[in-house]
Amino acid sequence: MPDPQIHIRHALYEDEEALGRLDRATWSPLHAVQPRPRPPYEPFFNDRFGPLDHLVAELAGRGDAVVGYIRLGLPTPLECNAHVRQIQGLAVAEEARGAGVARALLRAAQDEARRQGARRITLRVLGHNTPARKLYESEGFVVEGVLPEEFFIDGAYVDDVLMGRSLQLAPAAPTT
Predict the structure, then answer these.
(1) Contacts from 142-148 at CB under 8 Å and sequence distance 24+?
(2) How do 120-126 and 84-92 pair as beta strands?
(3) Peptide bond before 40: cis, by omega within 30 degrees of 0?
(4) Which of 28, 72, 108, 145 could hold 162 in an S-S bridge, CB 3.0 to 4.6 Å?
(5) DSSP 51
């Protein structure tokens, strides 16, 4: 059950500046495969991902400030793959870490994917990102593949780990 202090909603165009700042503030070689963003900054929303592709988190008592987001998209443009959704970004502000924001966003993304008719949800995570991998595993994601040394980040080769899970709800236990 998500913390009642965490409010999850779809992003709005008005969130773009806050989301861009959050994205830049949380950049880290622990999870980023792109170089650190430098001015002039690209818009947060673009032709590929708009507000409806993002769920944002707000914490009560923080003036409705956005403290996290998760991006949910299609893994490919293929119709035969349309039953799958992929998490393609997750960020939580430093001051909101440990409050359950990432877990609430993950659960909300799974609910949203189900609402969209998806049967599966997947993600990619860097092999050295142990905190994220533990969180995903605790939410039922399993490693489905590893691309060894797929990226060269900060002088080291890093694995790309593919994780996924079914979104099908488990059948109810029979009642006696």
Answers:
(1) none
(2) parallel
(3) yes
(4) 145
(5) G
Strand, helix or coil for residue 96: helix
CA distances from 93 to 73, 112, 143, 165, 176 (A): 22, 22, 26, 26, 47
What's the CA gap between 159 and 84, in Å, rounded? Answer: 23
**What's the pTM value of the predicted model, to 2 decimals?**
0.91
83-94, pLDDT tens digit by residue? 999 999 999 999
Alpha-helical regions (H) of 26-160 = 101-115, 130-138
In angstroms and rounded to an integer, the radius of gyration of the C-alpha atoms of the chain is 17
CA triple 39-43-45, angle to 5 deg: 155
97, two tokens: 């870490």
Spatial distance between the Cα atoms of 3 and 5, rounded to a whole number of angstroms: 5
Conformational region of residue 61, where left means phi above 0, alpha means psi within -120 to 50, and beta covers everything else: left
Identity (one letter) of the amino acid at 20?
Answer: G
Query: Tens digits of per-residue pLDDT, 21-53?
Result: 999 999 999 999 999 999 999 999 999 999 999
